[in-house]
Write a structure and sequence with these properties.
- Helix content is 41%, strand content 14%.
- The chain has one domain: Glycerol-3-phosphate (1)-acyltransferase (3-Layer(aba) Sandwich).
- By secondary structure, it is of the alpha/beta class.
- The longest helix has 25 residues.
- It is built from ten helices and seven strands.
């Protein structure tokens, strides 16, 4: 494992301005849910999917706009480095917290492969489903085979797919080993793999603060991060990797190495 930043200290977690941030952000969040969300939902449909092409599709623009607004309410200013490839690309990213999918969708809409539990998360699960998330029941081989089939179908149909090869969220301090099996879809399709580094705080300094704390639930993390100080969230689109005869293990190791390098930059 590779260390990325320091763990949050008690001094960092004590914040006299937290109550004021809640007072300012909670009404904005409510408006975002009651007004912006219904409008966004109305504009995510088969008709708007035909307006525009590629990343310029109207439904995708609405998803990106809504996710960017949500991140702003939580105090995040998004910075993008590099460009996402168009078409049927497998995007692979490090996994810190529930914010990762929202952060990625603020830049480029992809159909993520995610654990089935996310479908039951308030708001995030519903939005993820609308964005084309492929749900996987962990520990179920039949579910994994179905996921792989859907991934290959989407990639061949020139639709972007996103995965978190670590298989779970982390403490934010390291990039764990990438499971090579999930890369089989890129080998089978075949499809280009583009690594994506997701970084919170200047130089990744807030990775551990955004990550789930030991025993912390989704709602507890949601509320805690809502009151956190403003910070940067970075999305680094890295060098694409083409599948070859070396297979999925090389893809996994190469993607992980690029992400680690970007995180430590």
């Amino acid at each position: 494992m590779n260390s990325l930043s320091d763990s949050p200290s008690p001094a960092q977690l004590r914040d006299p301005w937290r109550a004021l941030r809640y007072a300012l952000r909670a009404p904005l969040l409510l408006l975002h849910l009651l007004i912006s969300l219904p409008l966004t939902v109305l504009l995510i449909n088969p008709i708007t999917a035909r307006i525009g092409r590629g990343t310029g599709r109207l439904d995708h623009r609405m998803i990106r706009l809504w996710c960017t607004g949500l991140l702003r309410i939580f105090g995040f200013r998004v910075r993008q480095f590099g460009q996402p490839l168009p078409g049927g690309v497998l995007f692979v990213a490090n996994h810190v917290a529930w914010l990762d999918i929202t952060l990625m969708h603020s830049r480029h809409v992809v159909g993520f492969v995610a654990k089935a539990e996310i479908s039951r998360w308030p708001l995030i699960g519903w939005l993820a489903a609308r964005a084309g998330t492929i749900y996987h029941h962990r520990g179920n081989n039949e579910s994994l085979n179905g996921v792989m089939h859907q991934m290959v179908e989407r990639l061949r149909a020139q639709q972007a797919v996103g995965v978190f090869p670590e298989g779970r969220t982390t403490d934010g301090l390291s990039v764990h080993t990438f499971h090579a099996r999930i890369f089989q879809a890129a080998v089978t399709a075949p499809s280009t793999v583009q690594p994506v580094a997701l970084r919170y705080g200047e130089g990744g300094s807030a990775q551990a603060l955004v990550a789930f704390q030991p025993g912390e639930s989704f709602m507890a993390n949601f509320l805690r991060v809502l009151g956190d100080p403003p910070r940067v969230a970075e999305v680094h689109f890295l060098q694409p990797i083409e599948p070859n005869e070396d297979g999925r293990r090389r893809l996994a190791d190469s993607a992980r190495a690029q992400i680690i390098a970007a995180m430590q930059r």
